[in-house]
Design brief:
single chain; 7 helices; 5-stranded mixed barrel; alpha+beta; elongated; 4-stranded mixed sheet
Length: 256
Amino acid sequence: MIEKSDAIIIKSRKFRESSKLLTLYTKEYGKLNMIAKGSRSKNNKFGGSLELLNHISVIFYYYPQKEFHYISQVSTNDFFHSIHNDIKKTMIALSIAEIINNTVHTNDKNESLFNLILDIYKSLENSSDDYIKYLVYFQIYFSKIMGYSPNFKSCIICNQKIDENYKNDSVYLNFENGSVLCETCKNKVVIPLKNCSPKIPLIIDKLENTYVNNLPGMQIPYNVINETFSIYHKYLKNHLLGMKDLKSLDLYFNIT
């Protein structure tokens, strides 16, 4: 049957001599694999609509029991020119796409996830620096949507809040259950813990209470946001099947 949906192109590869095999995250159906016949041929009917990371409206032949669907028509909603023209922005956007492609099942609709990706891309499009915070923002809200959100706001044993009044230099994270322990309580458990700055829970809390369109004006120290990314990445690797180190991010750090 013929269907229509908004979508974001999260993966693209060559298919046979003149076509593309695309992975789209759609608003109506979640992640889908689609074939665009003839899309690599000269003067093809799709033009530049099927570029990686584009936000599109797509009409396609949908086969519920099959792995691949066939694109009929496409129109571009947003090309994200600034993202495509900035290698650092591109790597951040591709890292988000990579996480979705590696961890999310096909045909699993989640409109909140679609809106999260789109909102972050729109905000990243208008940003001028400090792009890694967009990836951290995605990690935080992605974990909420997937039902694996950690609680790093207060010690799991004594309930001491990790806020501006916390007096010690370190907190201790438990990646297995997504919790935090204070300096006093860290010796009460025998499981491995990750020592980190108490600034990390504060930054996570700040990002959790920030609208995505306010991210361009938010200033976060480079070392703090990088450590926050690493912590969330390790946490997600512990909880999400398919979560891997991000190939797209290797280039980002090499050119930063």
